[in-house]
Records
---
Amino acid sequence: MVNDSAIRYGFISRFFHWLMALGFVWMLLSASARFIDKDAAFTKFVFAYHGQVGFTILCLGVLRVIWAVIQRANRPENPLPVKIGHTCMYVLMIVVPSLAVIRMIGMGRGFTYWGIWPILEKTGVETAWMKDLGNTFHGNLGWVLFALIIGHIFFAIKHRYSSKDQDVLPRMLGKTF
């Protein structure tokens, strides 16, 4: 099943969801390591890929939003608080990495995606407002996004075990239990 349905999400929605979940695990690991000790060898290793994974999340997030809009009439119905929570996560999964890109531009840094595709040309010219915008909001909104994701996981598990008529986990696993 490629398309979403009233009872569960289709293959493409599940693909985006779980691939991005892996990316968010990496981002949480690398951001947490940097928060704890930015000079540790482990931190330097995992943080070296933070920007690459973040740009991947941005690209997947844009595709995921487009797919969600296309599939909106097919998707399982959710109550208003769930819709608000999902909307906040969708917005932040675009805004947070976009702020990092804005900061890179403002710092005059170049960016090559996975060492292959040049995305930003290095200018060496700093633009203070862009750099400040990224510095102020990228990390802070990233932690807000992680908090929303943790809440998302908590409520999926809560619904799984508290009430069978509200079990939402099979919708994203693609099967019934």
---
Amino acid sequence: MAAHEAELTELVRSSRFLVLGGAGSIGQAVVKELFRRGPRKLHVVDISENNLVEVVRDVRSSLGYIAGDFQTYALDIGSPEYDAFFRHDGEYDYVLNLSALKHVRSERDPFTLMRMIQVNVVNTDRTARAAAEAGARKYFCVSTDKATNPVNMMGASKRIMELFLARRSRDIDVSTARFANVAFSDGSLLHGFEQRLAKRQPIVAPDDVRRYFVTPKESGELCLMSCLLGGNGDVFFPKLSDDLHLITFAEIALNYLRGRGFEPVLCESEEEARALAATLPDQGRWPCLFSTSDTTGEKAFEEFHAESDDVDWSRFANLGVIRDAIVPDPAGDAAVAAFEERIAALRARGSWDKREIVELFTTMVPEFHHQETGTYLDGKM
């Protein structure tokens, strides 16, 4: 960031930005990175009215004010109201889409799965098309490490999203970023640790799932770098060391509790952990339950790129760039059109099952190997 600060600041100061999904954890981090550099225009759209209030309070309390036009809008980007909003203004140089259904637990039922397709794929495509038609310079959105050799529906939906973006990249420059886990982001297991302490409840985590983590600020910086400095079709990802960054959730839980002044107490069952939560905290101790992961769609490790990808390791000190990862392809266009038609038919029919969606995903992403165990995260503490 230091090496490219002058270029980044100049680009932000001279440009107009629309941030979609800007009130989520990553979205708020991106908004702050843009706000602190004084953009000409910064409009933030999110479906969560309450989180938008926090965006405004946060930037006012930490950064103050900018000379540019800063406004927030509580809108669903798949709605007629959003379309009217964009037609009314629509003058943006950069459109950044941070909205997503991101949880593996979302693949439990076919109805949430269809909404995942709507949010992660359809809404991305329609907002990218609108940005291109309005003459925007760049469209950026967030992918995921789980899009590489996906084993869950969320990861596969993001890979399909990339295929849709490849079609749009003929009309507008597109770049994305693949993430490590953003520490303490809303809805994450680490965020859940904070909730469990606040509610005096046990800490639960898998002891066999290892993950990379970045801070919220680092996530905002990664998005900014990809949006402003990425070429058409580039995918940015953090360079991470196994020795420094790869860690199990159970290890994090132990470190977290000790950092908060509690000694972890390992329990054998949910019942024991719940019972001990009533007394241990008063003794400076906290009940923990660690177990082997057996839920559907859980990937044991993360990978940001495939072996066949053309990765530029030298351009940035701490970022890798997959070159030409999102490029137009006639065969891909045909597959995207067939996917659109099939999804529209299912929605028009008014009923669908998970098997139909899994088969459709597998057709679109041949490397997708769905792992169905019959057990889901909502069935566990």
---
Amino acid sequence: MLMEAPKTQNGSDVPAIVLDNATRRFVTPDGKMMTALRDFSMTVAQGEFACVVGPTGCGKSTTLNLVTGLARPSAGEVRLMGKPIDGVSPDIGFVFQADALFPWRNVIDNVSAGPRYRGASKEEAYEKARSWIAKVGLARFEKHYPHQLSGGMRKRVALAQTFINEPKILLMDEPFSALDVQTRTLMQGELLDLWQQSGASVIFVTHDLEEAIALADKVYVLTAGPATVKSVYHIDIPRPRVMEDIRFDEKFVEIAKVIWNDLREEVQIGQQRALQSGQ
């Protein structure tokens, strides 16, 4: 049954990620003060997969910037594993919407870059990279360069490049939005397989409500900017989930209708604001 999320956490008593009444303000290029997030609170348990949905421009990506430590809250607090953030943590992995691969490096050199930067020898890094490249189904493409790969294959390299560093926290900013529908579905399945093996805690930002429901343990619905949490839903669809079939499940359809009714109000507010600002 779909319900508002309780404030208790499953698993470890220490949440992986906590944003406690966080507010983020910044000065725009024309000198105006803008509030991206306001009194924003969310909690992600260790090993939990949380998705964030909301209207365009509401501040979803700002949430990730606060968790990485690249941005600091103007008010409130952000904690990782129970401790306030102090700089960029090596325990965080980040997958972007755009490819973050080095175009001048082949697949194995891209994937092995993380271990090399962390002090592993070339032999150690290559051995580990080959294992992860095989896990994402690209064992025959070690020597290929990014421009020689399809969009889905480049995304597999990006996942291997991230998971090889064994992140405790994984932040994903619309990583599959540029892919076609069929490839996106396959990549969602790949991601869930890797995540379930890793035990990482995930915040996944997306505009796609169906994607959020298919992937998540918990879905946060944000208000139109400045963003705050409007509602939180637990997704009680059993795991493991088959991405190719889950959207036809009756429970999935029921959940999507309930959350869309909640999200639609904020999307309409965002559209009205956009029209007014254009006049």
---
Amino acid sequence: MITAAAARRTALAAQGFADARPSGPPSRRHLAKVLSRVQLLQLDSVNVAVRAHYMPVFSRLGAYDPALVDEAAWSHSARKPRMLVEYWAHEASLIPVADWPLLQWRMRRYEHRYINHLRRLTADSPGLIDDVLAAVKELGPVGAGALETALGGGAPRAKGGWWNRSDVKHACEWLFAVGGLTTGTRRGFQRLYDLPERVIPAAVRNTVVDDDEAARQLTARAAVAHGIGTEKDLRDYYRLEPRRSQQAVAELVEEGLLEAVTVEGWRNPAYRHVDARTPRRVTGRALLCPFDPLIWERERTERIFDFRYRIEIYVPEPQRIYGYYVFPFLLDGELVGRVDLKSDRAAGVLRVQGAFAEPGVDTARVTAELAAELRTMADWLELDEVRVGERGDLANALATAI
């Protein structure tokens, strides 16, 4: 029997929160260590505070140069080879380049799932896919808008391959889903498409992994990232099919990579990675964005931290409990509060639109540590000050502390 507290510390250690932040400026080596723990970085278009793929690195390393992530994901040189590539993993994600073949099963599934969409798309435009690929080959890395212009976007189809704008965009997204295109780089947050052969090394691109082996390897990676988790926890990390996930877990237990365990208070059986460590204590602080892999599976978050968390972006404002884009606050291994954050870049202000303490916490200490972490975050985002609004039971004390 593993206690709930020990399981929590195991999960935190697996995600890198038992490690001290670097004493100096974080380097590419530090980024690689974070990636070896979390396995992937989720992408999201919301930019109210900071892009989702930058924040988990900050949560673990503290203030770092975002160019570290940009170079790892969207550039390549002999001195600094590309580390990451985009594809659908948990959701839209940055994954290690070497993991590209492990998602081939999903590419095939998308090709089958969206075959009717492709048929509709090309029914009156039989040359569209070939024209998009030829244009990307000539122009890439290139955005959908530039492709639409190059292929005559906006005009009715004319003889010789002039396509409707929305058809071009749909073709790009279909090709991305089935592995015919990838992201060469990004400009701002705009995806610039390119051919996989210009982004992914041939040795990786040509590796063939069957579906069962891919499920085993992805489940093993999920177990590294979790430290300890249920089969459903492990399955969710890469959104695997239940049957393949269950088979993979059983095989990894048989191989000795996973150990079946019972965790106090957990309804379902758990599995611990044999290399997972359980520190006696976890110290330190971190703000977590809604798409941090420690908390993105809300049921697991509630089970491990006794912390009910929902993203309220799509909830009408009068019905929101905590706010639009809320960051849980991790302190010494517990989720002790939450803040609704917005980066007001025009004013140079990190706005704390709401600040809330969890029941039973030492509010004086939480306030002091949260104020310090918000200041660190504002400096990292190159914002001049932190301003606290009036919402939440922690707001007044936090405003005074800041």
